[in-house]
């Protein structure tokens, strides 16, 4: 039964990415799986459970990785490099979930919505702290931390779209070049 649920989640994630959460019905998911809609309910309670599962899975991955990075005693630029790399890894491994997180999180309800909003706020605050530390240490140019945060996160949050259009680049090249491009724009040159 666990494998069937995973299949349902995978199919739903793909459909949510292609059409958006609101445009996809349980009937659409069942049809894509070549089964009756009523049979889906043997494995899952409904669209809200699917949405929560997809989003919380990827949000938890980001949160746990950020927690590991912030607890390490590394220079700020090395921490930012690691943040970029984890975004790339998670994007490559959870492309559909990322699309759902970015586009459909507003459809979450109750505690799940509160949890995701809190995770996102904490994640951004941790990232902001790393940037501020880099600025105070002179490793990052004296630019507004919010602009730096927005610039990096905007690029990383839309990576799933860009990478798919470009034919899914080799992850190692993607990491090397994205880290270089994003960091060289904020590093003080010697």
TrEMBL record:
Molecular function GO labels: DNA binding
Matching InterPro entries: Homeodomain-like_sf, HTH-type_Tx_Regulator, HTH_TetR, KstR2_TetR_C, Tet_transcr_reg_TetR-rel_C_sf
Keyword DNA-binding recorded: yes
SUPFAM superfamilies listed in its UniProt record: Homeodomain-like (SSF46689), Tetracyclin repressor-like, C-terminal domain (SSF48498)
DNA-binding region ranges: 25-44
PANTHER family: ACREF/ENVCD OPERON REPRESSOR-RELATED (PTHR43479), ACREF_ENVCD OPERON REPRESSOR-RELATED (PTHR43479:SF11)
Name of protein: TetR family transcriptional regulator
Species for this entry: Patiriisocius marinistellae
């Amino acid at each position: 039964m666990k494998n069937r649920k995973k299949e349902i989640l995978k199919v739903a994630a793909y459909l949510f990415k292609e059409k958006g959460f609101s445009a996809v019905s349980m009937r659409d998911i069942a049809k894509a799986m070549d089964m009756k809609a009523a049979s889906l309910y043997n494995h899952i309670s409904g669209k809200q459970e699917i949405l929560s599962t997809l989003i919380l899975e990827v949000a938890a991955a980001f949160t746990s990785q950020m927690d590991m990075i912030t607890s390490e005693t590394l220079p700020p630029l090395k921490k930012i490099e690691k943040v970029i790399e984890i975004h790339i890894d998670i994007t490559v491994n959870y492309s559909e979930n990322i699309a759902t997180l970015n586009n459909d999180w507003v459809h979450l309800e109750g505690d799940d919505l509160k949890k995701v909003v809190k995770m996102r706020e904490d994640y951004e605050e941790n990232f902001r702290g790393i940037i501020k530390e880099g600025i105070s240490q002179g490793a990052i140019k004296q630019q507004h931390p919010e602009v730096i945060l927005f610039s990096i996160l905007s690029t990383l949050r839309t990576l799933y779209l860009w990478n798919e259009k470009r034919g899914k680049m080799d992850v190692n090249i993607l990491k090397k070049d994205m880290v270089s491009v994003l960091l060289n724009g904020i590093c003080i040159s010697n």
